[in-house]
Amino acid sequence: MIALSLRQSAEVDVMLRKAGAAGGTTPRKPVDHSFMYSHGYEYLDGHIWEVFYMEPDATPG
Questions:
Q1: Closest Cα partner for 6 from 55, 47, 60, 57?
Q2: Distance (Å, rounded) from C-alpha 6 to C-alpha 16?
Q3: CATH code assigned at 40
Q4: What is the Cα–Cα distance from 18 to 45, expressed in whole angstroms?
Q5: Residue 53: predicted pLDDT
Q6: Residue 32 located in a structural domain
Q7: Could you give the number of structural domains in the chain?
Q8: Integer Cα distance of 35 and 61 in angstroms
């Protein structure tokens, strides 16, 4: 699995749309923890990409 941190939560959805248009699949739904938003996709070569945004000053709990 490869993880990619983005600058804004909206960029996660943009990346997933682009991945889907290029043939990638989304094996699960996005996850929103309020301080972190993530979604993942599996690309044609079998690699799994986890794309996420986390608020810089967030402390969960």
A1: 55
A2: 12
A3: 3.10.180.10
A4: 16
A5: 96
A6: yes
A7: 1
A8: 10
Please give, one letter per residue, the 3-state secondary structure of the chain.
CEEEECCCHHHHHHHHHHHHHCCCECCCCCEECCCEEEEEEECCCCCEEEEEEECCCCCCC
pLDDT tens for each residue of 3-59? 999 999 999 999 999 999 999 999 899 999 989 999 999 999 999 999 999 998 876
Domain hosting residue 46, numbered range? 2-54
Q: Does some domain include residue 27?
A: yes
What pTM, to 2 d.p., does this model score?
A: 0.83
| pLDDT value of residue 56 | 87
pLDDT at 1 over 90: no
In a domain, 31, yes or no: yes
Domain presence at residue 59: no
